[in-house]
């Protein structure tokens, strides 16, 4: 059925049904002017993320299910990056008028899949027509005991990342290559680990945050995001090329293509792994990739050669 | 300066400075992964609203200042419609790459103007490039003592509105007519009350909500919004044509054009006045326009003629 037949209020009714789930602390959910939710701590953590067709995603590369999943994932990652626990999600959609209602239902299926893993309630949002592409804008509300900012890193701290870097950026390359000739909406996704990391990232919280001095999620690329910590904490950083975790899949794919995998690991965005700093003797399963310094920002290779680094990665508007 | 020169992070820095203001209960504001804010009651009221260029606004009719003002106003109206007090606002923007940085600064000036009136803190959001038009998506968080839903109306309750209806819809007609030949971005707004109501709506809270049984804000039109109350409360409604408040400006403008002003008052959207129900003897400065019934939905004219009404007004996707 076309959205023009379902209508805005018909769609809202359908989505309300689809979003039934964990509503224990929700006194008003989808369908009123605003939602009313219980906040169990006196501080709420709130993040908003927007995904725009043609900028953040291409409907030739992703299914609606995957897109819904990723849409919540990118918001979730920001809550985890503050040391928070996610609770409530609001979904605003700008939808092209020619869409089928089932596209949006499929998007919500992906969204619900990830929300159930983390017991997140979908409590509201906005649904309207878009004259151009699909626009997703989400707000995720959570709570936190200890809030971890970008600004607490100290000289001498170790620098850690929670997983391999560059997989998502290489996954995107693969998708672009494979799908160049495919039709919009006829897309079935390839299932390699690299493309999966791009299409359905899986943010995870840091289990033990005591002692952690600063944290953020790697969304724009390691160098640009590490630079945010340096700027906000007024420190420098040294990272070691051979300590940066690179997956076997990325290493092999880059080798075949004659490319340096580190190009993807250092500057590729959307890994949604956590980057954090903590005292050097900190016990963690995460990878230690360097140390916070007083001022210098350096990359050191296995032969000890030093290179200054700049904030290179993804930045909107910059060409 | 063009946004392509300022860059995403340069813009965020500028906006962060512009948004300094009431930050008493904000422990983390703009510039981290998420905001951290104090919630003084155990229930938070949350609403999201999206404005899309070409659907909700036309840059030939509005200045960026007015647009920023209205963007917060439409969110504010939803918080007031729940009986809430607004506290924190998150702003997500999808911005065409060719925009000047000053356009966004002007938009934030309008936003700040209204936020200061209500002591709302701007605490975060997202800023990204849009491939097509300008997209604004906001989330406003508030608190409430007593939450007023759409679902509490009872047969016998009076139906009330807080101000004149139809002004905004007529204002839009005037803008469309006057500006047909004007260039984008060269627009200076006409200052009549009707166009002002459309461009810079001024939502106000209901001062005394004790006894109020249901409430919403009139955004899509009186009939369609009253119908929401009927559906959610499982009741009917009778309204009297000659009780509906029509401004002198609307009456005069409609007369000149040979149109029925009630067409605008009944079906025109975006008035952002409150529509509420309360016991018939309820003391209020608001206009009483009818009564809640068990089932029938009727409009009665001054001669006593009854007409059934349908949910007519603005609905996205419907043609």
Please tag this protein with its features.
globular; about 25% strand; 7-stranded mixed sheet; about 30% helix; homodimer; alpha+beta; about 325 residues
Could you characterize what this model shows?
The structure is a homodimer of 319-residue chains. By secondary structure, chain A is an alpha+beta fold. Chain A contains 8 helices and 13 strands. The longest helix of chain A has 18 residues, at 64-81. The radius of gyration of chain A is 21 Å and the shape is globular. The two termini of chain A are 41 Å apart. Chains A and B meet through helix 1, strand 2, strand 3, helix 2 and strand 4 of A and helix 1, strand 2, strand 3, helix 2 and strand 4 of B. Strand 3 of chain A pairs antiparallel with strand 2 (35-38) of chain B.
Question: Percent range for helical residues of chain A?
Answer: 25-40%
Largest sheet of chain A: 7 strands, mixed
Seen as an oligomer or otherwise, the chain set is homodimer
Distance between the termini of chain A: 41 Å
- Helix and strand run of chain A: HEEEHEHEEEHHEHEHHEEEE
**Can you count the helices of chain A?**
8
Low-confidence stretches of chain A: 183-190
The Rg value of chain A, from CA coordinates, equals 21 Å
Strand content of chain A: 25-35%
Overall 3D form of chain A: globular
- Average pLDDT number of chain A: 92
User: How many strand elements of chain A?
Assistant: 13
Structural class of chain A: alpha+beta
């Amino acid at each position: 059925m076309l959205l023009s037949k379902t209508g805005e209020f018909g769609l809202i009714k359908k989505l309300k049904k689809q979003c039934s789930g964990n509503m224990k602390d929700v006194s008003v959910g989808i369908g009123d002017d605003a939602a009313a939710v219980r906040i169990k701590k006196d501080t709420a953590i709130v993040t908003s993320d927007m995904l725009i067709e043609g900028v953040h995603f291409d409907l030739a590369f992703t299914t609606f299910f995957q897109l819904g999943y990723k849409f919540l994932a990118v918001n979730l990652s920001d809550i985890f990056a503050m040391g928070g626990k996610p609770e409530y999600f609001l979904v605003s959609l700008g939808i092209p008028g020619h869409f089928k209602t089932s596209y949006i239902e499929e998007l919500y299926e992906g969204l619900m899949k990830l929300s159930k893993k983390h017991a997140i309630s979908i409590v509201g949002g906005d649904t309207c027509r878009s004259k151009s592409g699909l626009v997703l804008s989400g707000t995720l509300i959570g709570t936190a005991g200890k809030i971890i900012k970008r600004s607490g890193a100290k000289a001498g701290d170790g620098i850690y990342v929670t997983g391999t870097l560059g997989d998502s950026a290489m996954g995107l390359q693969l998708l672009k290559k494979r799908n160049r000739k495919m039709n919009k909406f006829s897309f079935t996704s390839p299932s390699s680990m690299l493309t999966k990391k791009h299409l359905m990232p899986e943010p995870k919280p840091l289990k033990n945050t005591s002692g952690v001095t600063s944290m953020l999620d790697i969304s724009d690329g390691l160098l640009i995001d590490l630079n945010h910590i340096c700027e906000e904490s007024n420190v420098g950083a040294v990272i070691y090329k051979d300590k940066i975790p690179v997956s076997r899949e990325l290493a092999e794919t880059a080798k075949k293509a004659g490319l340096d995998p580190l190009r993807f690991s250092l500057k590729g965005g959307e890994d949604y792994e956590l980057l954090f700093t903590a005292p050097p003797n900190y016990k963690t399963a995460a990878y230690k990739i360097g140390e916070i310094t007083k001022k210098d920002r350096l990359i050191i290779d296995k032969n000890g050669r030093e290179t200054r680094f700049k904030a290179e990665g993804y930045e909107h508007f910059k060409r």
